[in-house]
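Input chain follows. Return structure tokens only.
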Amino acid sequence: MFKPVRKKINEIDHSAAKALLQSNRRGILAMNGDNGYPYAIPINYFYDCDKKKIYFHGAKAGHKVDVLKISDKICFTVYGNERIDESESWAPYVQSAVVFGRCRLLEAGPESIARLKEFAMKYYPDEALADDQIARNGRATQMFEITIEHMSGKQVQEK
């Protein structure tokens, strides 16, 4: 169902793709938008490796919510781990991980707040600050959950 990485020489193993997903702070979420146009936006996220899920937050209403209610299929991409080979300093290597899956809106309640706390701990410098923000804004926050169906990764030299 999902196409493999075409150039096997560029493919990174599954653990490297998961590590990239774990370490990055931002990615691009692509969805099926209005009138057949794709809709892709940058998001902050939290990757739960054990559950094979990605969590992010947003407003309870808007374009993203509208399109996800029509079609839950998504593609999520992160890239990074840029490195320079001294012999070709003008052409860096960069890794990327691409996830295909389904996204659902979490119902308000304990599960949603727990995921929001995990998300916040990735970005806030301490737990007290995260708890304060959740207490102030948690009720107005929509949590989203991506169930990963397929993940691949690759490394290419930009030349």
